[in-house]
Amino acid sequence: MENSGKFWTNDEVNQLKKSYINEQKDIIEIAYIHKRYPGGIIAKLKSFGIITESNEARGYENYKNSELYKEASEKARERYTKKEETNNKNAKIVKELEYIEIKNNMYELKNELKEVKLELKELKILLTKFMASVDIS
Which residues contact 50 (CB under 8 A, 6 or more apart)? Predict the structure, then answer.
């Protein structure tokens, strides 16, 4: 169904209402007209308050027992799986970026620590020289 998931135009919405309310077509017939899955037709009918539950849709039982339902379910599973894979990849990327950031922070801290150690050595040398030049007696 090539229009599945696409936005509905005003003309499509008007045709949907006309087909369902005036012409009494069922959701499978309407789905083929609009090149959308019946689940999308049901969702649109719900959004306009024409039906409140999926099983109220004309032709719902036939749809539930059809090959089209199996196809739509499989497509939904594929989309869900693909989304999960993308989420897992994104989570892995985030972890890698966090790891890189931590490594960079550690590198910066090591450099700062080296600088502090050098400054302390210089201070120690200066303090030693100062103490040697001061007469404590």
Answer: 17, 20, 21
